[in-house]
Amino acid sequence: MIEVQLKDKKFELFIPEKVIIKEIERVAKDIARDMKDKNPLFICVLNGAFMFASDLIKGIDILCEIGFIRLKSYQGQQSSGSIKEIQGLVEDVENRHVVIVEDIIDTGHTMSYMVNKFKAENPASVKIACLLFKPNALETDTKPDYCALEIPNDFIVGYGLDYDGLGRNLKDIYKIKS
Ligand code: IMP
Ligand code: MG
What we know:
This protein is an alpha/beta fold. It has a single domain (17-156), classed as 3-Layer(aba) Sandwich (Rossmann fold). The protein has 3 helices and 10 strands, in the order ββαβαβββαββββ. The chain has a 6-stranded mixed β-sheet with strand order 5-4-3-6-7-8. A 4-stranded antiparallel β-sheet has the order 1-2-10-9. β3 (41-46), α2 (50-58) and β4 form a beta-alpha-beta unit. α1 (17-34) packs across α2 (50-58). The protein is globular. The structure holds inosinic acid and magnesium ion. Residues 45, 48-49, 102-103 line the site of magnesium ion.
């Protein structure tokens, strides 16, 4: 599929699944090397990161655990600025090596919120792993420690990311057509 229509917007193929998977495997190897013997706790940020977290963790061949947190910050095509925690983390992060697994860092406000939140709970360390990073949109100092792909400031969907709830099921990543 070269083009998809979601509600009022058209999107064109941007990053094929093969490229996504290759870059995730690279990130998984880096994390596994750095976190060996640390039993890291991966925290998958729902909804957007579910597909990334699934492929990432399959590539990590060390002892590790995974938990889930659910946030909401985006409305349509815009970062709303206000972050709502819809479902909290069940696991205790105290003395744990935490790796936050996020779909995308755009303005960075969501990530900044999470890093501050977890750092206040006395973890052994907090690292950031993201599938996508828009460096030109960053408004905070929360750069990823591990990143599969850097992209320009275009709005994208697919591989877990949505436009108004749609497009998460697409296995490739699409960008909005201007
Ligand atoms: P931030 O707080 O501006 O960094 O936004 C982070 C959240 O907004 C991410 O976790 C995504 O869920 C969502 N988001 C940011 N950029 C996009 C995009 O291009 N497409 C879909 N969702 C996005
Ligand atoms: Mg997200």
